[in-house]
């Protein structure tokens, strides 16, 4: 049996990286092949959550391959049908807006565009402080797009950040398995 190839794209919601990287390891432990992808922001910025070079070394060490981090590197994903599924986690509000409106100006949005041309699933793991605010319309649009699925999500901190939503990244593997069957893991709102 051929391994399922998962493109795992990370955007700049740095506070979630410590939850995301173990999901990449879990996929490898479950015999998936993982192609790491990072937005230029995620790939290049040091933040209070860690240094970019440390994250890069850790992810490339786990996956045993170089991270795709440019538009040029991401473009062949479609023509060469490199992936069975693309996971974008964390998926920021910025990336959600670009996906909803067909904007392709990062390695992650190019990976999505290239992958979707093959009619294959894209799984979004939302992490944004404005999901229930300015970003809500983009999420609503994406719910109606063919081959777009979501990792189940919930409000992050309803008292202090009432518009903030984060996916339950522990459900990534289950959501992948469902999306590969053309189904949304339910319930999508936790």
Describe this structure as you would to a colleague.
This protein has a single domain (5-180), classed as Rossmann fold (3-Layer(aba) Sandwich), CATH 3.40.50.1950. The chain contains eight helices and seven strands, in the order βαβαααβααβαβββα. The model has no long low-confidence stretch (mean pLDDT 94). Strands 1, 2, 3, 4, 5, 6 and 7 form a seven-stranded mixed β-sheet that branches. The protein has helices at 17-29, 40-44, 52-63, 71-74, 93-100, 107-116, 136-143, 172-180, and strands at residues 5-10, 33-38, 85-91, 122-128, 148-150, 153-157, 161-167. It is an alpha/beta fold.
Task: Tell me briefly what this model is.
The termini are far apart.
């Amino acid at each position: 049996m051929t391994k399922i190839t998962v493109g795992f794209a990370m955007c700049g919601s740095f506070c979630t990286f410590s939850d995301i990287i173990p999901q990449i390891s879990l996929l490898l432990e479950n015999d998936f092949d993982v192609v790491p992808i990072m937005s230029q922001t995620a790939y290049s910025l040091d933040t209070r959550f860690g240094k970019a070079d440390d994250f890069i070394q850790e992810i490339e060490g786990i996956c045993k391959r170089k991270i795709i981090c440019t538009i040029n590197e991401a473009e062949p994903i479609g023509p060469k049908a490199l992936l069975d599924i693309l996971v974008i986690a964390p998926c920021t509000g910025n990336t959600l807006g670009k996906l909803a409106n067909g904007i392709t100006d990062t390695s992650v949005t190019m990976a999505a565009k290239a992958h979707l041309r093959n009619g294959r699933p894209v799984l979004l793991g939302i992490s944004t402080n404005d999901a229930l605010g300015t970003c809500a319309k983009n999420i609503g649009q994406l719910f109606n797009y063919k081959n777009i699925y979501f990792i189940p999500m919930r409000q992050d901190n309803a008292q202090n950040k009432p518009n903030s939503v984060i996916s339950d990244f522990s459900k990534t593997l289950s959501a992948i398995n469902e999306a590969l069957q053309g189904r949304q893991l339910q319930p999508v709102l936790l």
